[in-house]
Amino acid sequence: MLHDKVTPYNSEEEKNTQVAKMFDNIANRYDLINSILSAGIHKGWRRQCVKLLKSKQPISILDVATGTADFAIECAKLNPKSILGIDISDGMMEVGREKLKKLKLDSLIVLKNGNAESINLPNDSIDAIVVGFGVRNFQDLEKGLSNLYRILKPGGQLVILEFSYPRLWLVKASYNLYFSYITPFVGKIFSKDVRAYTYLTESVKAFPNNQKFIDILNKLKFKHTHFKPLSLGIAAIYYGEK
Ligand SMILES: C[S@@+](CC[C@H](N)C(=O)[O-])C[C@H]1O[C@@H](n2cnc3c(N)ncnc32)[C@H](O)[C@@H]1O
Q1: Binding pocket residue ranges, ligand 1, CB within 6 Å
Q2: Do residues 61 and 130 make contact, with C-beta atoms less than 8 angstroms apart?
Q3: Per-residue pLDDT, 71
Q4: How far, in Å, from the CA of 20 to the mean position of ligand 1?
Q5: Which end of the chain has the least Cβ crowding within 10 Å, N or C?
Q6: Residue 212 belongs to what domain range?
């Protein structure tokens, strides 16, 4: 199935609306479930992404699909002047704002409601853009990515972290087992939104990963594109420059 046809509740509503509702529903448990399901590995993945930005020392950073702001918080280590996080789920950002206050990062990192596909930041205005586990949920993937391209300064960097689909049969078999049974089970117990974690499985399977995703970045004119599989291919970092 085409990835944009995979939606959280299979309802008549637009994918964006369904996705925002779903993340509002699970916002209070999102961080907890993330840590249980990934045994904390996701933190190391974000650290690797941020390392890719270090050499160019970005002054302005945009964290798209910021959710509870973990990626934005990791980006603070680069000492930029500003970090803007945007998301379509106010519920997720509420949790994020609490974290920022506790970490005293709330003046550096600002979270605002915004959709990657339509946010109207000026052309050529941002040094670096990160997206963590967000692009899979975009309603129109190419529209979202081309909007990010428009916003980036020439030479600016895009780093995307996303679940992937492993190739080695043994890893693939364990992965299928994990995503088909354990993820929905943990999601059901902790989040009370049964659909959220079956949607996760379906959307990961339908997503154009690895070289297919690089082909899309190339089509949209991103340069120096490449990807790096993480943890035996269960996730990947995608990189491109304007
Ligand atoms: C799985 S969470 C990831 C949160 C965070 N980036 C992280 O690394 O944990 C995905 C987030 O993407 C947001 N999202 C989905 N589609 C979006 C869009 N088109 N524009 C902005 N945010 C979007 C959702 O609301 C949700 O908070």
Answers
A1: 16, 19-20, 23, 64-67, 70-71, 86-89, 92, 115-117, 132-134, 137-138, 144
A2: yes
A3: 98
A4: 8
A5: N
A6: 3-241
- pLDDT of res. 203: 87
Phi then psi dihedrals of residue 63, to 5 deg: -105, 105
Task: Provide the number of structural domains found in the chain.
Answer: 1
Residue ranges of alpha helices (H) inside the chain are: 15-38, 41-51, 70-75, 90-102, 141-151, 169-177, 183-191, 194-206, 210-219
The mean predicted confidence, pLDDT, of the chain is 92
For residues 238 and 34, the answer to whether their CB atoms sit within 8 Å is no
Closest CA to 50 of 82, 73, 66, 81: 73
Q: How many residues in the chain?
A: 242
206: CATH: 3.40.50.150
